[in-house]
Specification:
Chains: A alpha+beta, B alpha+beta, C alpha+beta
Structural class of chain C: alpha+beta
Distance between the termini of chain C: 33 Å
Radius of gyration of chain C: 19 Å
Oligomer: heterotrimer
Helix content of chain C: 10-25%
Order of helices and strands of chain B: EEEEHHHE
Largest sheet of chain B: 3 strands, antiparallel
Largest interface: B-C, 47 and 39 residues
Number of strands of chain C: 10
Shape of chain B: globular
Shape of chain C: globular
Strand order of the largest sheet of chain B: 2-3-4
Number of helices of chain C: 4
Strand content of chain C: 15-25%
Number of domains of chain C: 1
């Protein structure tokens, strides 16, 4: 059963009582909150996710409301993971952003049976394209565009790779656009389902894009990677795509993993196999039409 | 450190080495670290796996292999990389 | 000049090496190596991973001309030695791409103190100047020499470690 198949009142009750359990890729996440405005936003943005009320949840997360010590009239939100608070508290209106960051953090620090690459991941023609990049390089923006133009979303944040077989698991989650990207996506993709603007976060203004229903429904369909593309958005830059040496791609990708050192030799061998079986490129772009055409051409050459 | 020191590789057989066409990625189980080596660094490691050698021996071998002068500056560069390899535990001094 | 090194290396199975065909021009470019123009010198870089979680936390550029280069004196008789911080391999990409710093040192940056002298071929001890130490750091040891101000900022971050045994 999907979230949108239950009425909001039941959804809200689950969130505020025993916890709402939703299947997100290979994990079940149990979310608790009594904060009704957050429940309203989640009901809209999580509507295509599958309910997993009777299943074991890997992550138990909670958004609680607390009074500010310095200003008792101000209420703030705090994220809890298994009862522990990894962050400071945040303004009430940032609850959705805090929840989404918190879930990302939980995945990043708790999942060590998979190699966790810091990368957007999309699928086309049965194979995965990794888009690893550093913050500010535009990977979430590019991922949003691609997944609304024929590519399937695996993740805008995590390359979840089974290290021995090289299989990638989809984990389609909300995609947080930041600052100028929000307007750029609204202009380019008027059909996009986007949450409300959340201003003044530590990353500026954030708005979350809902993954497509198809991406969520196909989240059990795994795939192997064939391309690794390090993207970078530069204003007015002409499209440029150039091959990277395997050694360079290796070092860039391994340094972009959350748990490479934890997995040790297993990670070294996994990245070696991955680089050996993929073509690696560096991509500079500024125009969405151009980059979509270039990537489609690349993947159609298989 | 005297230039008359002799060096040899350290646990070379335990390294996981991937050759990317003249560039190498190396996993060192002893430290859990991954290193990038270019061809000349890998030559040094593999040479020291087969022989104990001084900086003179290594410089002269590399000079031959890479067809370049094994002059004083080159020897100083080799000496510096030996410090580095030693610090990483990839080679050790034997006398 | 490049002869294969005389050692047996571990390789992956041939099947895994099967790559998708790609544009010929792009494939030709793959001959470009990670570090250009360094064939005549030995190079080793160590991966500093784990920085993905908080990649934006520590930004530092290399010391600029005129900067007070960060040095430390451990009181071990070796005098002032230049601090060499280790960035992640993004440095290599930035060098190749010709982009300007800053370098991201990650959430738990590490560094070492450079050697401030060496023994020459005659067995005599010769000093390395500050600039030579900074150059050794950046060209041979995969690091960056930072300004004293940047170093103070780096040290204030939790998890910063300096290897003083170098």
């Amino acid at each position: 059963m999907m979230v949108n198949q239950i009425p909001f009142e039941e959804f809200h009750m689950l969130l505020s009582k025993q916890g709402l359990r939703v299947a997100v890729g290979p994990f079940n996440i149990c979310i608790h909150t009594t904060h009704k405005p957050l429940a309203t936003k989640l009901y809209m943005l999580y509507r295509h996710y599958r309910l997993a009320q009777d299943e074991i949840a890997e992550f138990h997360v909670r958004i609680v409301i607390e009074r500010s010590f310095s200003n008792p009239l101000t209420r703030k939100v705090r994220f809890l993971l298994d009862g522990q608070s990894p962050f400071e508290s945040f303004p009430l209106e940032q609850a959705l952003a805090v929840l989404e960051w918190g879930i990302n953090l939980a995945i990043a620090v708790r999942v060590n049976h998979l190699l966790l690459l810091h990368s957007a991941v999309v699928e086309k023609n049965g194979h995965v394209i990794l888009l690893p990049a550093w913050p500010g390089s535009g990977k979430t923006t590019l991922c949003t565009v691609l997944t609304h133009r024929g590519f399937r979303l695996f993740s805008d944040e995590f390359g979840l790779m089974e290290p021995h077989q090289g299989i990638f698991y989809p984990i389609p989650r909300l995609m947080p656009l930041k600052n100028e990207s929000i307007e750029a996506i609204r202009n380019y993709l008027p059909e996009v389902v986007m949450g409300q603007l959340i201003p003044n976060t530590q990353k500026g203004t954030v708005a979350h894009v809902c993954p497509s229903k198809e991406s969520i429904q196909l989240s059990k369909q795994v795939a192997k990677a064939k391309w690794i593309i390090f993207p970078k958005w530069i204003a007015n830059a002409p499209l440029k795509i150039e091959a990277l040496s395997d050694a360079q791609a290796f070092m860039l990708l391994a340094s972009n993993a959350f748990n490479y050192e934890v997995l040790g030799a297993t990670a070294f061998q996994a990245v070696t196999h991955l680089i050996s079986s993929c073509n690696s490129y560096k991509l500079v772009y500024s125009d969405f039409d151009e980059v979509i055409a270039a990537l489609k051409k690349l993947v159609d050459e298989v | 450190m005297s230039t008359h020191s002799f060096w040899q590789s350290n646990n070379f057989q335990t390294l996981l080495i991937e050759d990317w066409g003249g560039e190498y990625t190396v996993f060192q189980p002893d430290s859990g670290k991954t290193h990038y080596l270019n061809q000349m660094s890998m030559h040094i490691l593999s040479f020291l796996n087969q022989h104990s050698a001084s900086v003179f021996d290594i410089s002269s071998h590399l000079g031959e292999q890479f067809e370049q002068n094994s002059d004083k500056e080159f020897q100083q560069n080799i000496q510096k990389i030996l410090y580095h390899l030693d610090a990483l535990g990839l080679i050790k001094k034997v006398k | 000049m490049s002869k294969k090194p005389p050692f047996e290396h571990h390789t992956i199975d041939a099947a895994a090496k099967q790559k998708a065909p790609a544009d010929n021009n792009l494939r030709k470019q793959k001959r470009r190596m990670l570090l250009k123009g360094t064939a005549a010198l030995p190079v080793i870089m160590t991966l500093h991973s784990g920085a993905a979680l908080a990649r934006t936390s520590n930004l530092a550029g290399p010391a600029a001309p005129g900067d007070d280069i960060a040095k430390q004196n451990l009181g071990d008789g070796r005098g002032d030695r230049v601090v060499c911080m280790h960035p992640n391999p993004a440095k290599a990409e930035q060098e190749l791409g010709g982009n300007a710093p800053p370098y991201d040192l990650g959430p738990a940056p590490s560094g070492h103190l450079e050697h401030n002298s060496y023994v020459d071929a005659n067995g005599d001890t010769q000093p390395f100047s500050d600039i030579e130490q900074a150059m050794n750091c950046q060209t041979n040891n995969g690091g960056i020499a930072v300004s004293a101000t940047a170093f103070t900022s780096i040290l204030s971050k939790s998890g910063a470690t300096i290897d003083t045994t170098w």
